[in-house]
Input
Amino acid sequence: MGDAMERCATGIDGFDKISQGGFIRNSTNVLVGGPGSGKTTFLLQFLWNGVKKFEENGLYCSFEPDILETVNDARSFGWDFGKLGEEGKIKFLKFSPATSIDELKTELTKLIAQGGVKRICFDPISVLALNLNEQGKIRNTIFELASLMKRLNVTTILADESMEAEGMQPQTQGEWTKTDIIRFLSDSVTVLYESGISGVGDRAIRVSKMRRTAHDRKPQGMQITPKGIEILEAPKEPEMTTPTTESSQY
Ligand SMILES: Nc1ncnc2c1ncn2[C@@H]1O[C@H](COP(=O)(O)OP(=O)(O)OP(=O)(O)O)[C@@H](O)[C@H]1O
Ligand SMILES: [Mg+2]
Output
């Protein structure tokens, strides 16, 4: 069976290229970045493309108060999730941060089976950790969630908030580092950068870890346009000019 069979393509061309075809199928993946870095946009595009390009149904789980706003904002990219919702291809689900892991697991198991879900996103997973004070509990909760998704044959992306991509040092204690542990549990980590100081050219994306994959490790320039996330072509490396016998003819 070819490698393409084991991948869950995002449909974001440049990303699928640097990651050798997309995420590993049924894996748990972390997408980390600061405010406005493009996390939600990436997740929505992954789900939209899932339905439109790959006929895979999706589930978007939010812990934020206003999920309708997210659905409406997606229209600015031309993604009408309302329609896909009516067709039963995408579900948007709001969880309270106080939801227990057992409630979450029961609800997700039901929805994944009912909706034939293949792709799931949690945005942002850090909210789930707010009520858990110990690293051990956070680790167990995320581990249980990730294991369940694998058993149900779903490819998962967990959006995580971090200030490091803004060039700030993450604090050693406090909210920003509460969910850092998930990076060790996950099969891949992708970082979104946004410096906010040099216009359109200041966004970048980097796959910092992807198990079983010889991925590109360099940051790639990225833009958020009215069509969503676009990864920019890397400028060509200058060619080596070692003289050869052919070139010495000239
Ligand atoms: N239609 C659009 N066209 C171009 N750029 C857009 C459009 N809509 C949003 N953006 C850009 O995308 C950014 C928001 O990205 P997004 O909401 O995905 O980030 P995020 O990482 O989820 O942020 P947060 O941590 O605040 O949730 C906006 O700040 C804006 O720069
Ligand atoms: Mg967001």
Q: What stands out?
A: The radius of gyration is 19 Å. The CA atoms of residues 28 and 156 lie 5 Å apart.
